[in-house]
């Protein structure tokens, strides 16, 4: 048995759970197939999402001429079955051990795959492993990609789709009118976003370009880039667009697969889509990661969404972003500089807004002291 995509040594709780599950798989499952080379690998939680499995088209032909024939549970003492339910009562996720079966078209051949999902910490984070025949990898990859796409299409609005972290990683509770920045910057940014979705998509298509636009918000920490993202997310949700937020707030950190997954979900959604990616510089750690991100920004790895996809990234450290990203035409369509407080009027507006009913005219004297913050 070999293990792929399971580099979790930097997270002790995750590594312990991974090792326990891998040992159980090798002890209880692998001996069933003594004549086959078996492969253990990490898989996405979408593969154990009950709404996804219920909606999976069992007539769909996967790579190798297989169809998904269903699944059933196994007893696993270190991965007990636990059900999760969404806010509206729909069954969403099962932990536990499951046998997934795939039937070969026009034959009696059936391939079995094991999927084991379990908690690994007290915050209800789940690790999910699969064990499959090594020569079944292409079929399995096609199956997991379809699960991922189906997961992204569930309940696309009015909630933000989070990749990495949990559902509370990003909650857009800020309206556009609550953003206090220079009017020309606010108007220019919103006009760019509105123009792309309302008129620009047709222009991209006429030029034989994918309707995929990329903006960067750059500025020192604390200038309001996250609030801008929240306000734009709410603007998009109000129009029933799909909004995807890529979070680095989990054990994977700033991992490229999150960007890749967001782009795939956008392409499969058939809705105008806004992707929000904070701290772009964190995803450009080494040459390999840079090359992968550059392919996405070039559009080479971005599947087409006919309704248009806009990626808005932020950075606190634009100087850390490779010139191949910042200066090559087409990789970033525009860069907006989000400044610190530059004048007394803006500082007073912030005081009035954030102090609310507690604001007093005597507070106006503090405005001069806030310029530059």
Give the key terms.
373 residues; alpha/beta; six-stranded parallel sheet; 34% helix; elongated
Verbal overview:
Helix content is 34%, strand content 22%. The protein has 373 residues and is of the alpha/beta class. Strands 1-2-8-7-6-3 form a six-stranded mixed β-sheet, sandwiched between helices. A six-stranded parallel β-sheet has the order 9-11-12-13-10-14, sandwiched between helices. Helix 1 (12-29) links the parallel strand 1 and strand 2 (38-42). The longest helix is centred in the middle third of the chain and has 24 residues, at 183-206.
Q: Brief description of this entry?
A:
The protein has 373 residues and is of the alpha/beta class.
Distance between the termini: 56 Å
Outline, from the CA principal axes? elongated
Strand order within the widest sheet?
1-2-8-7-6-3
- Structural class call reads alpha/beta
Outline the biggest β-sheet: 6 strands, mixed
Which stretches are poorly predicted, pLDDT < 50 over at least 5 residues?
Answer: 4-10
Overall pLDDT: 84
How many whole angstroms does the radius of gyration measure?
Answer: 24 Å
Q: Tell me the total number of β-strands.
A: 14
The helix/strand series, from N terminus to C terminus, equals EHEHEEEEEEHEHEHEHEHEHEHH
Indicate the percent of residues in helices. Answer: 25-40%
SS summary, helix count: 10
Strand proportion:
15-25%
């Amino acid at each position: 048995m070999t293990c792929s995509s399971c580099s979790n040594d930097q997270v002790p709780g995750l590594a312990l759970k991974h090792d326990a599950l891998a040992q159980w798989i090798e002890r209880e499952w692998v001996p069933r197939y003594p004549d086959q080379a078996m492969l253990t690998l990490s898989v996405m939680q979408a593969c154990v999402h009950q709404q996804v499995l219920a909606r999976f088209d069992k007539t769909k032909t996967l790579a190798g001429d297989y169809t998904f024939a269903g699944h059933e549970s196994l007893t696993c003492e270190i991965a007990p079955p636990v059900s999760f339910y969404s806010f509206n009562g729909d069954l969403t996720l099962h932990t536990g051990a499951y046998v997934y079966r795939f039937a070969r078209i026009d034959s009696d051949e059936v391939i079995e795959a094991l999927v084991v999902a379990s908690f690994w910490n007290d915050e209800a984070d789940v690790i999910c492993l699969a064990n499959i025949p090594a020569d079944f990898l292409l079929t399995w990859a096609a199956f997991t990609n379809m699960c991922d796409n189906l997961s992204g299409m569930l309940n696309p609005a009015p909630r933000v789709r989070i990749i990495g972290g949990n559902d509370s990683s990003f909650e857009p509770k800020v309206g556009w009118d609550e953003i206090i920045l220079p009017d020309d910057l606010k108007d220019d940014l919103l006009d760019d976003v509105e123009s792309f979705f309302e008129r620009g998509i047709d222009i991209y298509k006429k030029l034989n370009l994918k309707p995929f636009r990329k903006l960067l918000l750059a500025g020192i920490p604390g200038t309001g880039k996250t609030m801008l993202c929240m306000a734009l997310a709410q603007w998009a949700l109000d129009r029933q667009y799909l909004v995807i937020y890529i979070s680095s707030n989990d054990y994977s950190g700033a991992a490229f697969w999150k960007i890749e997954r967001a782009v795939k979900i956008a392409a499969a959604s058939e809705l105008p889509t806004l992707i929000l990616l904070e701290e772009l510089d964190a995803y450009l750690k080494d040459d390999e990661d840079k090359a992968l991100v550059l392919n996405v920004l070039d559009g080479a790895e971005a599947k087409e969404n006919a309704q248009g996809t806009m990626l808005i990234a932020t950075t606190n450290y634009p100087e850390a972003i490779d010139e191949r990203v910042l200066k090559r035409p087409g990789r970033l369509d525009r860069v907006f500089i989000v400044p610190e407080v530059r004048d007394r009027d803006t500082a007073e507006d912030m005081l009035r807004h954030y102090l609310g009913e507690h604001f007093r005219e005597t507070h106006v004297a503090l405005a001069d002291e806030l310029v530059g913050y």
